[in-house]
Amino acid sequence: MSAHKPKALDGSFMLAFGTGSTWRKEDSEALNTGLIEIVKEALQLGYRHLDTAELYNTEREVGEAIKQSGVPVSEIYITGKVFTMSDVQGAFDRTLQRLGVDYVDLYLLHHPYFAKSNADLQGAWTELETIYDSGKVGAIGVSNFTEDHIRTILETARIRPACNQIELNPYLQRTQLQQYHKKQGIQTFAFSPLSPIVRASPGPLDSDLESIAKKHGISTAVALIRWALQQGIAVATTSTDKARMKDHLLALDVSLLEKEVALISRFGAEKHFRGRWNDKFAPDDRS
After folding, report:
1. Are the C-beta atoms of 107 and 75 separated by less than 8 Å?
2. Which residues are CB-neighbours of 5 under 8 A, at least 6 positions away?
3. pLDDT tens across 83-138, in order?
4. pTM for the model
5. Cα separation, 138 vs 156, whole angstroms
6. In-domain check, residue 286
7. Number of folded domains that form the chain
8. Which residues define the annotated binding site?
9. What average pLDDT does range 40-56 have in this prediction?
10. Annotated binding site for substrate
11. Could you list the residue range(s) of the whole structural domain that residue 135 is in?
12. DSSP tag of 169
Protein backbone atom coordinates (compact mmCIF):
# COMPACT_ATOMS: atom_id res chain seq x y z
CA MET A 1 0.00 0.00 0.00
CA SER A 2 1.04 3.60 -0.54
CA ALA A 3 2.78 5.50 2.23
CA HIS A 4 1.05 8.64 1.00
CA LYS A 5 -2.08 9.90 2.71
CA PRO A 6 -4.60 11.00 0.06
CA LYS A 7 -5.26 14.74 0.06
CA ALA A 8 -8.80 16.09 -0.21
CA LEU A 9 -9.50 18.43 -3.10
CA ASP A 10 -10.50 21.34 -0.88
CA GLY A 11 -9.14 24.53 0.69
CA SER A 12 -6.21 26.04 -1.21
CA PHE A 13 -6.12 22.96 -3.47
CA MET A 14 -9.39 24.16 -5.04
CA LEU A 15 -7.43 26.69 -7.11
CA ALA A 16 -4.97 25.03 -9.46
CA PHE A 17 -2.18 26.61 -11.45
CA GLY A 18 -2.49 25.18 -14.95
CA THR A 19 0.37 24.31 -17.29
CA GLY A 20 -1.90 23.60 -20.24
CA SER A 21 -2.10 24.14 -23.97
CA THR A 22 -0.83 27.73 -23.83
CA TRP A 23 2.48 26.32 -22.57
CA ARG A 24 2.94 23.72 -25.25
CA LYS A 25 6.44 23.56 -26.67
CA GLU A 26 8.19 21.41 -29.21
CA ASP A 27 9.31 18.06 -27.89
CA SER A 28 13.02 18.35 -27.16
CA GLU A 29 15.58 17.19 -24.66
CA ALA A 30 16.22 20.75 -23.46
CA LEU A 31 14.15 21.91 -20.52
CA ASN A 32 12.09 25.07 -20.95
CA THR A 33 13.78 27.21 -18.29
CA GLY A 34 11.20 29.97 -18.64
CA LEU A 35 8.40 27.58 -17.78
CA ILE A 36 10.34 26.23 -14.81
CA GLU A 37 10.70 29.76 -13.46
CA ILE A 38 6.99 30.52 -13.90
CA VAL A 39 5.81 27.35 -12.15
CA LYS A 40 8.38 27.89 -9.40
CA GLU A 41 7.07 31.45 -9.03
CA ALA A 42 3.53 30.13 -8.74
CA LEU A 43 4.52 27.83 -5.90
CA GLN A 44 6.45 30.54 -4.11
CA LEU A 45 3.46 32.90 -4.42
CA GLY A 46 1.24 30.34 -2.71
CA TYR A 47 -0.32 28.02 -5.31
CA ARG A 48 -0.45 24.50 -3.92
CA HIS A 49 -2.19 22.67 -6.76
CA LEU A 50 -0.42 22.11 -10.09
CA ASP A 51 -2.44 20.87 -13.06
CA THR A 52 -0.48 19.18 -15.83
CA ALA A 53 -0.92 16.44 -18.42
CA GLU A 54 0.94 14.12 -20.74
CA LEU A 55 -0.41 16.10 -23.71
CA TYR A 56 0.93 19.43 -22.46
CA ASN A 57 4.53 18.23 -22.68
CA THR A 58 5.37 20.20 -19.53
CA GLU A 59 5.74 17.46 -16.93
CA ARG A 60 9.56 17.59 -16.75
CA GLU A 61 9.47 21.35 -16.19
CA VAL A 62 6.78 21.03 -13.53
CA GLY A 63 8.88 18.41 -11.74
CA GLU A 64 12.00 20.56 -11.89
CA ALA A 65 10.08 23.62 -10.65
CA ILE A 66 8.84 21.64 -7.65
CA LYS A 67 12.41 20.61 -6.83
CA GLN A 68 13.72 24.18 -7.11
CA SER A 69 10.80 25.84 -5.29
CA GLY A 70 11.68 24.75 -1.78
CA VAL A 71 8.05 23.68 -1.26
CA PRO A 72 7.83 20.04 -0.10
CA VAL A 73 6.04 17.87 -2.65
CA SER A 74 3.95 16.55 0.26
CA GLU A 75 2.32 20.02 0.43
CA ILE A 76 1.51 20.13 -3.29
CA TYR A 77 -1.53 18.62 -4.97
CA ILE A 78 -0.56 17.29 -8.42
CA THR A 79 -3.13 16.56 -11.12
CA GLY A 80 -2.02 14.62 -14.19
CA LYS A 81 -3.87 13.36 -17.26
CA VAL A 82 -3.35 10.47 -19.64
CA PHE A 83 -3.67 11.03 -23.39
CA THR A 84 -2.07 7.81 -24.69
CA MET A 85 -5.08 5.58 -24.11
CA SER A 86 -3.42 2.66 -25.92
CA ASP A 87 -0.91 2.37 -23.07
CA VAL A 88 -2.43 3.90 -19.94
CA GLN A 89 -0.10 2.16 -17.48
CA GLY A 90 2.98 3.06 -19.50
CA ALA A 91 1.83 6.67 -19.83
CA PHE A 92 1.33 6.89 -16.07
CA ASP A 93 4.78 5.45 -15.37
CA ARG A 94 6.34 7.97 -17.75
CA THR A 95 4.42 10.80 -16.06
CA LEU A 96 5.85 9.84 -12.67
CA GLN A 97 9.34 9.64 -14.17
CA ARG A 98 9.09 13.04 -15.87
CA LEU A 99 7.67 14.68 -12.75
CA GLY A 100 10.31 13.04 -10.58
CA VAL A 101 7.75 11.77 -8.08
CA ASP A 102 6.42 8.39 -6.99
CA TYR A 103 2.82 9.53 -6.53
CA VAL A 104 0.28 11.98 -7.94
CA ASP A 105 -2.85 13.14 -6.17
CA LEU A 106 -5.27 12.97 -9.09
CA TYR A 107 -5.00 11.20 -12.45
CA LEU A 108 -7.56 11.75 -15.20
CA LEU A 109 -8.60 10.28 -18.54
CA HIS A 110 -7.96 13.42 -20.60
CA HIS A 111 -10.93 13.00 -22.93
CA PRO A 112 -13.46 10.35 -24.01
CA TYR A 113 -13.26 10.84 -27.77
CA PHE A 114 -10.55 8.23 -28.37
CA ALA A 115 -13.14 5.51 -27.74
CA LYS A 116 -14.68 3.77 -30.72
CA SER A 117 -17.03 1.83 -28.43
CA ASN A 118 -18.34 1.77 -24.89
CA ALA A 119 -15.96 -1.10 -24.20
CA ASP A 120 -12.99 1.13 -25.13
CA LEU A 121 -14.08 3.73 -22.59
CA GLN A 122 -14.77 1.16 -19.90
CA GLY A 123 -11.45 -0.55 -20.57
CA ALA A 124 -9.48 2.67 -20.13
CA TRP A 125 -11.27 3.32 -16.85
CA THR A 126 -10.46 -0.21 -15.65
CA GLU A 127 -6.78 0.56 -16.30
CA LEU A 128 -7.07 3.69 -14.15
CA GLU A 129 -8.64 1.59 -11.40
CA THR A 130 -5.63 -0.74 -11.56
CA ILE A 131 -3.30 2.25 -11.20
CA TYR A 132 -5.36 3.41 -8.21
CA ASP A 133 -5.02 -0.04 -6.66
CA SER A 134 -1.22 0.31 -6.90
CA GLY A 135 -1.32 3.12 -4.32
CA LYS A 136 0.56 5.52 -6.62
CA VAL A 137 -2.37 7.88 -7.07
CA GLY A 138 -4.69 9.44 -4.53
CA ALA A 139 -7.78 9.63 -6.74
CA ILE A 140 -8.81 8.98 -10.35
CA GLY A 141 -11.22 10.89 -12.53
CA VAL A 142 -12.09 12.09 -16.00
CA SER A 143 -11.88 15.22 -18.11
CA ASN A 144 -14.10 16.55 -20.91
CA PHE A 145 -16.68 13.83 -20.24
CA THR A 146 -20.39 14.34 -20.82
CA GLU A 147 -23.07 12.74 -18.68
CA ASP A 148 -23.43 9.93 -21.22
CA HIS A 149 -19.71 9.17 -21.08
CA ILE A 150 -19.80 9.00 -17.28
CA ARG A 151 -22.85 6.75 -17.33
CA THR A 152 -20.99 4.42 -19.67
CA ILE A 153 -18.01 3.94 -17.36
CA LEU A 154 -20.23 3.65 -14.29
CA GLU A 155 -21.86 0.58 -15.85
CA THR A 156 -18.70 -1.41 -15.12
CA ALA A 157 -16.70 0.75 -12.68
CA ARG A 158 -15.55 -0.48 -9.28
CA ILE A 159 -14.47 3.06 -8.38
CA ARG A 160 -16.44 6.18 -9.20
CA PRO A 161 -14.62 9.10 -10.84
CA ALA A 162 -13.54 11.58 -8.17
CA CYS A 163 -13.95 14.52 -10.53
CA ASN A 164 -14.69 15.65 -14.07
CA GLN A 165 -12.54 18.51 -15.33
CA ILE A 166 -14.56 20.44 -17.89
CA GLU A 167 -14.72 23.80 -19.61
CA LEU A 168 -16.99 25.88 -17.37
CA ASN A 169 -17.65 29.57 -16.76
CA PRO A 170 -20.71 31.87 -16.70
CA TYR A 171 -21.07 31.60 -20.50
CA LEU A 172 -20.91 27.79 -20.34
CA GLN A 173 -22.49 26.80 -17.02
CA ARG A 174 -23.44 23.24 -17.93
CA THR A 175 -26.06 23.18 -15.20
CA GLN A 176 -27.47 19.75 -16.01
CA LEU A 177 -24.01 18.16 -15.99
CA GLN A 178 -23.17 19.88 -12.70
CA GLN A 179 -26.36 18.53 -11.16
CA TYR A 180 -25.47 15.04 -12.37
CA HIS A 181 -22.01 15.38 -10.83
CA LYS A 182 -23.54 16.28 -7.47
CA LYS A 183 -25.93 13.35 -7.65
CA GLN A 184 -23.04 10.98 -8.33
CA GLY A 185 -20.63 12.53 -5.83
CA ILE A 186 -18.29 13.76 -8.57
CA GLN A 187 -16.33 17.00 -8.08
CA THR A 188 -16.72 19.56 -10.85
CA PHE A 189 -13.32 20.97 -11.86
CA ALA A 190 -13.43 23.95 -14.23
CA PHE A 191 -10.96 25.03 -16.86
CA SER A 192 -11.20 28.23 -18.97
CA PRO A 193 -12.88 30.11 -16.08
CA LEU A 194 -11.92 33.51 -17.51
CA SER A 195 -13.42 33.11 -20.99
CA PRO A 196 -16.03 35.85 -20.42
CA ILE A 197 -13.26 38.46 -20.18
CA VAL A 198 -10.52 36.80 -22.24
CA ARG A 199 -12.18 35.11 -25.22
CA ALA A 200 -15.89 35.96 -25.20
CA SER A 201 -15.97 39.71 -24.58
CA PRO A 202 -17.97 41.83 -25.10
CA GLY A 203 -20.97 40.18 -23.55
CA PRO A 204 -24.06 40.67 -21.36
CA LEU A 205 -22.06 40.07 -18.18
CA ASP A 206 -19.49 42.84 -18.67
CA SER A 207 -21.15 45.74 -16.86
CA ASP A 208 -22.41 43.82 -13.81
CA LEU A 209 -19.18 41.88 -13.46
CA GLU A 210 -17.19 45.11 -13.39
CA SER A 211 -19.56 46.57 -10.81
CA ILE A 212 -19.31 43.53 -8.55
CA ALA A 213 -15.51 43.47 -8.83
CA LYS A 214 -15.25 47.19 -8.06
CA LYS A 215 -17.49 46.83 -5.02
CA HIS A 216 -15.17 44.18 -3.55
CA GLY A 217 -11.95 45.85 -4.64
CA ILE A 218 -10.96 42.92 -6.84
CA SER A 219 -10.36 42.31 -10.54
CA THR A 220 -13.02 40.85 -12.83
CA ALA A 221 -10.78 37.77 -13.13
CA VAL A 222 -10.92 37.20 -9.37
CA ALA A 223 -14.69 37.70 -9.42
CA LEU A 224 -15.06 35.00 -12.09
CA ILE A 225 -12.83 32.54 -10.25
CA ARG A 226 -14.66 33.24 -7.01
CA TRP A 227 -18.02 32.71 -8.73
CA ALA A 228 -16.95 29.12 -9.39
CA LEU A 229 -15.20 28.47 -6.09
CA GLN A 230 -18.17 29.73 -4.11
CA GLN A 231 -20.32 27.10 -5.79
CA GLY A 232 -17.92 24.35 -4.75
CA ILE A 233 -16.29 24.12 -8.17
CA ALA A 234 -12.52 23.57 -8.30
CA VAL A 235 -10.78 25.88 -10.79
CA ALA A 236 -7.66 25.70 -12.95
CA THR A 237 -6.31 29.04 -14.13
CA THR A 238 -2.95 30.23 -15.37
CA SER A 239 -0.86 33.23 -16.36
CA THR A 240 2.72 34.04 -17.27
CA ASP A 241 2.44 37.42 -15.55
CA LYS A 242 3.48 37.49 -11.88
CA ALA A 243 1.02 40.24 -10.98
CA ARG A 244 -1.88 38.29 -12.47
CA MET A 245 -0.72 35.07 -10.85
CA LYS A 246 -0.72 36.81 -7.48
CA ASP A 247 -4.05 38.49 -8.23
CA HIS A 248 -5.83 35.21 -9.02
CA LEU A 249 -4.87 33.83 -5.61
CA LEU A 250 -7.08 36.49 -4.00
CA ALA A 251 -10.06 34.40 -5.05
CA LEU A 252 -9.29 32.04 -2.18
CA ASP A 253 -9.76 34.81 0.38
CA VAL A 254 -12.62 36.98 -0.88
CA SER A 255 -16.32 36.24 -0.78
CA LEU A 256 -19.14 37.36 -3.05
CA LEU A 257 -22.69 37.88 -1.85
CA GLU A 258 -24.97 35.03 -2.84
CA LYS A 259 -27.09 37.46 -4.83
CA GLU A 260 -23.95 38.45 -6.76
CA VAL A 261 -23.20 34.82 -7.58
CA ALA A 262 -26.78 34.46 -8.78
CA LEU A 263 -26.54 37.67 -10.82
CA ILE A 264 -23.39 36.48 -12.60
CA SER A 265 -25.13 33.18 -13.35
CA ARG A 266 -28.27 34.91 -14.65
CA PHE A 267 -26.53 37.33 -17.01
CA GLY A 268 -23.98 34.70 -17.99
CA ALA A 269 -26.78 32.42 -19.15
CA GLU A 270 -27.75 35.03 -21.75
CA LYS A 271 -24.69 34.14 -23.83
CA HIS A 272 -23.30 30.80 -24.99
CA PHE A 273 -19.61 30.39 -25.69
CA ARG A 274 -17.60 27.19 -25.96
CA GLY A 275 -13.88 27.44 -26.61
CA ARG A 276 -12.94 23.74 -26.80
CA TRP A 277 -14.29 20.63 -28.49
CA ASN A 278 -16.67 22.60 -30.69
CA ASP A 279 -16.57 19.79 -33.27
CA LYS A 280 -18.19 17.48 -30.69
CA PHE A 281 -21.19 19.70 -29.83
CA ALA A 282 -23.96 21.43 -31.74
CA PRO A 283 -23.58 25.25 -31.79
CA ASP A 284 -26.39 25.73 -29.25
CA ASP A 285 -25.56 22.72 -27.06
CA ARG A 286 -24.91 23.86 -23.47
CA SER A 287 -24.43 20.39 -22.01
Report:
1. no
2. none
3. 999 999 999 999 999 999 999 999 999 999 999 999 999 999 999 999 999 999 99
4. 0.96
5. 21
6. no
7. 1
8. 110
9. 97
10. 110
11. 11-276
12. B
